[in-house]
Amino acid sequence: MEFTKGHGTGNDFVLLPDPDGQLDLTPELVAALCDRRRGIGADGVLRVVRAAKHPEGAGLAGEAEWFMDYWNADGSFAEMCGNGARVFVRYLLETGLATPAGAALPVATRAGVVRALVEGGTVSVEMRRPRLYDGSTATLGGLTLPGTAVDVGNPHLVCVLPTGVELAELDLTTAPGFDPTVFPTGVNVEFIVAGDPVDGTDGHTLMRVYERGSAETLSCGTGACAVGAVALRDAGRDTGVIAVDVPGGRVTVTVTADSCWLSGPAVLVATGEINPATLQPSA
């Protein structure tokens, strides 16, 4: 099996080329590939398949040639992954499966079609405008933290930390608790504090995230979009630009009247082959 390893601000993925949808990809195989000791190691798997050759992408084949079949590290599906989409586009361009053009490159996902622009080392993807729709809480250790539920094609809960609670001191080795009646399919939970002003932006936020199906990751693109929308709302704005610092670096979120752009670096670091028969599940 051929693979490529890539990441966007430390949010890393195994990319599997499967243009005609012939790969027998299972939850067990995905989990084994993502195992950081017995596999390649990643936050998730991106299968690169033509939209027309994937049952979930066929209806979008008229809008986009390629479908991003994204799986979490535990073998579960995810509707959308912002950093994954940026790495996916980098892969399409560097392997010649797509060519740069003046217009944005469309990519089909389970959350619909997103568009991407590439400028040097920066890849930007345009996704749906985040929808802030409810208040809820997350529990972590002895803390109960109020948050805002946000839909970015997948579910998020953004929690602003109160004074006296340090972002770096949060223990994210276990999953935060949440209300399953608000999030019946699980949720990505973001914890944020305000950062110092950054030139050219309308705000600056520091973020850590616990992703459903992948645990704490160094970055989460859709999570950054959710955080950007909450930061703008708290500043009394409907649109604007927010710099979001994650453990893996910085991304920029631009919320417009009808969409949201996520911009940052996307890098391919290795290519190779792996024999699936040698992979073992984690103990």
UniProtKB/TrEMBL annotation:
GO cellular component, one term: cytosol
Function (record text): Catalyzes the stereoinversion of LL-2,6-diaminopimelate (L,L-DAP) to meso-diaminopimelate (meso-DAP), a precursor of L-lysine and an essential component of the bacterial peptidoglycan.
Catalytic reaction list: (2S,6S)-2,6-diaminopimelate = meso-2,6-diaminopimelate
Entry similarity comment: Belongs to the diaminopimelate epimerase family.
SUPFAM superfamilies in alphabetical order: Diaminopimelate epimerase-like
Name of this protein: Diaminopimelate epimerase
Organism lineage string: Bacteria, Bacillati, Actinomycetota, Actinomycetes, Micromonosporales
PROSITE patterns linked: DAP_EPIMERASE
Subunit structure: Homodimer.
Residues binding substrate: N11, N72, G82, N83, N154, N188, E211, R212, G221, T222
Organism: Micromonospora parathelypteridis
Protein EC: 5.1.1.7
Keywords attached to this entry: Amino-acid biosynthesis, Cytoplasm, Isomerase, Lysine biosynthesis
Pathway recorded for this protein: Amino-acid biosynthesis; L-lysine biosynthesis via DAP pathway; DL-2,6-diaminopimelate from LL-2,6-diaminopimelate: step 1/1
PANTHER family membership: DIAMINOPIMELATE EPIMERASE (PTHR31689:SF0), DIAMINOPIMELATE EPIMERASE, CHLOROPLASTIC (PTHR31689)
Site annotation Could be important to modulate the pK values of the two catalytic cysteine residues: residues: H156, E211
Localization (cell): Cytoplasm
GO molecular-function term, one example from the UniProt record: diaminopimelate epimerase activity
Active site annotation, chain numbering: C81, C220
Keyword Iron part of the UniProt annotation: no
Gene3D superfamilies per UniProt: Diaminopimelate Epimerase, Chain A, domain 1
Pfam families: DAP_epimerase (PF01678)
Gene Ontology biological process terms from the UniProt entry: lysine biosynthetic process via diaminopimelate
Protein's UniProt keywords contain Isomerase: yes
